[in-house]
Design brief:
By secondary structure, the protein is of the alpha+beta class. It is built from 9 helices and 12 strands. The strands form 4 sheets. A 5-stranded antiparallel β-sheet has the order 1-2-3-5-4, sandwiched between helices. A 3-stranded antiparallel β-sheet has the order 6-8-9, with helices on one face.
């Protein structure tokens, strides 16, 4: 597990020298599952200083380069501040460091429904970027998915009932995706509300590009539905409808995409369920989070139920009972 950096451990004069800052002041920031972040203030500007506790130099350089490339391409995210020597990362006590411009605003959980269309538009804007754009030519492929090694672990999970449920649902997804020929695009992979800043003018800024990859845009939209379209632990039809409506303003979905989206929402939930179980039961056992993964079982059931009801209503008289998003477009 990452060894987090505390405020007292930071050599502030060294940081100031690396970035050419006058009289900086630090305050810790809450949140962050893998890294240590601080608000850094000077007389003239505000920044976020992040000690990338969970990165080596290569991965930190990649994260910084991708973040800066996205900012320069117009994606609403925080700009990376180069050091005085022009590098996008520095080092503190052997750990990589990144400095970004502070975004004035707040995290709202849940993100208000009225802001979900903008979140959808940002995701569609991201998916429309050329993978040949400067800074985006070396993005990894499919890293948000469960790897073959991950899936090989599932039958041996101590909770055999959960393992059987996960295996069954993943097999269904794999069969459905066997004929998927959608092009891979730049994806965020973790568009949850704690990675979205609501700025003072009401616009959105997206943070945390650690799971950026080239992948199916519908899986990324499905992951955003898991992160932004829940209400009381279940899929909220009006929330996913608002998210998709914003997305389609930039990237209209085909009928085939519409039919596939419920499955990709479920796929995203299965990925989250596995990682929650594996982290809190196997890698870093935490009794306080022993049932955290079960939230995704309930969510998956709500997705299946919501779309089944929609499909039943849409298919009356023609025997069509397949899940569909069609009823959410009206």
């Amino acid at each position: 597990m990452a060894k987090y950096t505390t405020l007292e451990q930071i050599d502030l004069p060294a940081v100031a020298d690396s970035y050419g800052l006058d009289d900086p002041r630090l305050a810790p920031l809450a949140g962050g599952a893998a890294n240590s972040s601080f608000r850094l203030s000077t007389a003239s500007a505000e920044f976020v200083l992040t000690i990338l506790d969970n990165h080596d130099t290569a991965s930190a350089e990649s994260l910084a380069a991708h973040t800066q490339a996205l900012f320069l391409l117009g994606v609403p995210t925080s700009a990376v501040v180069p050091a005085t020597d022009g590098s996008l990362i520095t080092h503190f006590d052997g750990r990589p460091v990144i400095l970004k411009v502070w975004t004035e605003g707040r995290v709202e959980q849940p993100l208000p429904v009225k802001l979900l269309p903008e979140a959808g538009r940002i995701l569609a804007q991201l998916h429309a970027l050329s993978t040949q754009s400067p800074g985006l030519t070396d993005i990894p492929v499919g890293t948000r998915r469960l790897s073959a090694d991950h899936e090989a672990l599932i039958p041996e999970l101590p909770d055999r009932e959960f393992a059987a449920w996960l295996t069954d649902r993943l097999n269904r997804i794999h069969r459905a995706e066997a004929t998927n020929h959608r092009p891979r695009t730049v994806t965020h992979g973790d568009l949850f509300d704690d990675n979205v800043i609501v700025r003072t003018d009401g616009s959105l800024t997206v943070l945390d590009w650690e799971t950026i990859s080239l992948d199916d845009p519908l899986l990324d939209l499905g992951m955003a539905a898991v992160g932004l379209a829940q209400e009381n632990g279940e899929l909220a039809p009006e929330r996913v409808k608002a998210l998709v409506a914003g997305y389609e303003q930039i990237a209209p979905l085909s009928e085939e995409d519409v039919a596939a989206l419920p499955g990709e929402i479920i796929h995203a939930a299965l990925i989250i369920a596995f990682h929650r179980y594996y982290r809190h039961h196997v890698r870093f056992p935490d009794p306080s989070k022993a049932t955290y993964h079960l939230e995704m079982i309930r969510f998956v059931e709500s997705v299946e139920g919501a779309f089944r009801c929609l499909a039943d209503g849409a298919g009356q008289g023609r025997g069509d009972s397949q899940p569909s998003l069609g009823g959410m477009r009206g």
